[in-house]
Design brief:
The protein is an alpha+beta fold. The strands form 7 sheets. It has a 7-stranded mixed sheet, with helices on both faces. Strand 22 and strand 23 form a beta hairpin. The protein is globular, with a radius of gyration of 26 Å. The structure holds glycyl-adenosine-5'-phosphate (GAP).
Length: 448
C-alpha cells in the first residue's frame, strides 16, 4: 500500500488535503489524473445504475437539509462511534477498532453497554499508541455528524445545520417529487452521487476512512415484504459491476452483518482485499424496510404512502439500498490494477492495468523526436483530432522509453508514436500498455 500511496502522490492522482499547511487528517484532494479516474468511475457507475436501467432515474439533491431530516433519519440520536481517551496523554481511540487489533470482534453497530463490557474485559491488552499507557476512560458514544451555521446570522443558540452524514437522505426527501413528476411506478429506483461528512475519530488507511468522502447510492422502492428476490438480484448486479470493470474476483468477498445499524433489516458488504489492510468494505447493500419513509412521514407530517394505480392499495414502500464509497472504489481499482513487472534486461516497470473505460488518459501521442518540427506538427494534429472524442495527452519530453514508462504508471491503454515512416505513408505505431506490443496503423483507420 505504501508503494501505491507513493505512486498516487508522485503521478498526481491523490494529494493530502491542505498539504501546504501541514495536511489535515481524513481529507484528500484528487489531482489531475485522480479526477479523471474518479469521473470515469462515476460515469461507469451511472451508466450501469441509471442509463442501462429503465426503471431507475438520477438525482442531485442539495447537501444542506432541514435539520429535522437528521432527527428523522436517526443520525442525531444514533449515529455514533465508541470513543475512549488515554488518561495520561489524552489521545483518543476508537474502541471497536482497537479491540479488533487484538483479535476481539467489535463494531460500531454494537450497543454502548456491549462495547463497554468488551473493553473492560480486554483493556489490559490495549496500549496507547502515544505514550504506551494502558489507562483509558470508559468508552462513550461520540456522534459523527458534522455541524455548520448555514443561514444562521445571529450567533444565537439555534439548532445547527448538519452536513450530510450519508448522501442518500436527499433521495428519500425527493421520492414524492419523483413519483409526481415522472412516470415511475413501484418498483423503481433513484440513483445519486453525493458527498458525506463524518467526524471519524481516527481517520486512517489513506482514502479508506476519511472525514469527507463521496458516496454513489441507489435506493430501490418496492412493495412491502417483496424484498427477497430484488435484494438478491441487486447484490449480484453490484458484484458483477466490479468484475466487469476489472477487479479480480479473488479479491472480492461478501460479508453479512451480524450487528445491524438502526435502519437495516439485512445488510451485506462487498469487501475488497486491499494490499496491507486486507479485506474491508467498499460497498454496503442494505434492506432498509419502510424505516426511512415512515420516519420522514412522521417527522414532516406529509403523507408518503404510495397508492397502487391498479388496485388503489396504499402502503409505505420498502427500500433496498446500495451505497459505495467512491474513494474506497478508487483505491480498490488502483490497487487491483497496480502491477510490478520484469521487462527485458532485468529492468522492471510499474503499470496500472486499469480497465480502458476507467483509465484517466486513453491515448498518449508522441512525436519520435522533439527537435524535428515535421514530426511534432503531425503528432500535434493527431492529438487535436483524437482529443475531440477522448482524453489524450501529448508528450515530447525525454526518450520514448521514459515516456512509455510514465504512461504505464498512469494506466494509459495506448501510446501512439509519430515517426519518419508516418511522414511517408501516414501510419503510426500503436503500443498496447499490457503486452507492450506495437502495431502500425493508418491514421485514417485510427481516427475512425
Ligand atoms: N447510506 C448508507 C451508508 O452510508 P455506510 O456503510 O455507512 O452506509 C456506505 O457507508 C459506504 O460509504 C461504505 O461502504 C464505504 O465505501 C463508504 N464510507 C463510509 N464511511 C466512510 C469513510 N469514513 N471514509 C470513506 N468512505 C466511507
Amino acid at each position: 500500500m505504501d508503494e501505491i500511496i507513493s505512486l498516487c502522490k508522485r503521478r498526481g492522482f491523490i494529494y493530502q488535503g491542505s498539504e501546504i499547511y501541514g495536511g489535515v487528517a481524513g481529507l484528500y484532494d484528487f489531482g489531475p489524473y485522480g479526477v479523471e479516474l474518479l469521473n470515469n468511475i462515476k460515469k461507469a457507475w451511472w451508466r450501469s445504475s441509471v442509463q442501462l436501467k429503465e426503471n431507475y432515474v438520477g438525482l442531485d439533491s442539495a447537501m444542506f437539509k432541514d435539520p429535522k431530516v437528521w432527527h428523522a433519519s436517526g443520525h442525531v440520536s444514533g449515529f455514533s462511534d465508541p470513543l475512549a481517551e488515554c488518561k495520561k496523554c489524552h489521545i483518543r481511540i476508537r474502541v471497536d477498532k482497537e479491540l479488533g487489533k487484538i483479535g476481539v470482534h467489535a463494531d460500531e453497530k454494537m450497543s454502548e453497554a456491549e462495547l463497554i463490557g468488551l473493553f473492560d474485559d480486554n483493556k489490559s491488552k490495549i496500549k496507547c499508541s502515544g505514550c504506551g499507557a494502558k489507562d483509558f476512560t470508559t468508552p462513550k458514544m461520540f456522534n459523527l455528524l458534522v455541524q455548520s451555521n448555514l443561514g444562521n446570522f445571529t450567533n444565537k443558540d439555534e439548532e445547527p445545520v448538519y452536513l450530510p452524514g450519508e448522501a442518500c437522505q436527499g433521495i428519500y426527501l425527493n421520492y414524492r417529487n419523483v413519483l409526481d413528476t415522472t412516470r415511475m411506478k413501484i418498483p423503481f429506483g433513484i440513483a445519486q452521487i453525493g458527498k458525506a461528512f463524518r467526524n471519524e475519530i481516527s481517520p486512517r488507511n489513506f482514502l479508506f476512512r476519511c472525514r469527507e468522502f463521496e458516496q454513489a447510492d441507489t435506493q430501490y422502492f418496492i412493495r412491502p415484504n417483496e424484498n427477497e428476490q430484488p435484494y438478491n438480484e441487486i447484490k449480484e448486479d453490484r458484484w458483477n459491476w466490479y468484475v466487469q470493470y476489472g477487479i479480480d474476483e479473488k479479491n472480492l468477498r461478501w460479508h453479512q452483518h451480524s450487528h445491524l445499524v438502526f435502519y437495516a433489516k439485512d445488510a451485506w458488504d462487498i469487501e475488497y482485499n486491499f494490499p496491507s489492510y486486507g479485506f474491508d468494505e467498499i460497498e454496503g447493500i442494505h434492506d432498509r424496510t419502510d424505516y426511512d419513509l415512515s420516519q420522514h412521514m412522521k417527522h414532516s407530517g406529509v403523507d408518503l404512502n404510495y397508492t397502487d394505480p391498479q388496485t388503489g392499495e396504499k402502503f409505505i414502500p420498502w427500500i433496498l439500498e446500495t451505497s459505495a464509497g467512491l474513494g474506497r472504489m478508487t483505491l480498490a481499482f488502483i490497487s487491483d490494477a497496480y502491477t510490478l513487472e520484469q521487462v527485458k534486461d532485468g529492468e522492471s516497470r510499474t503499470v496500472l492495468k486499469l480497465h480502458p473505460d476507467l483509465a484517466p488518459i486513453k491515448y498518449a501521442i508522441f512525436p519520435l523526436l522533439k527537435n524535428k518540427p515535421e514530426l511534432v506538427k503531425k503528432a500535434r494534429e493527431l492529438y487535436t483530432k483524437l482529443s475531440e472524442k477522448h482524453m489524450c495527452e501529448f508528450d515530447d519530453n525525454g526518450n520514448i522509453g521514459k515516456r512509455y514508462r510514465r504512461q504505464d504508471e498512469i494506466g494509459t491503454p495506448n501510446c501512439i508514436v509519430v515517426d519518419f515512416t508516418t511522414l511517408e505513408d501516414d501510419t503510426v505505431t500503436v503500443r498496447d500498455r499490457d503486452t507492450t506490443k506495437q502495431i502500425r496503423v493508418k491514421i485514417s483507420d485510427l481516427v475512425k
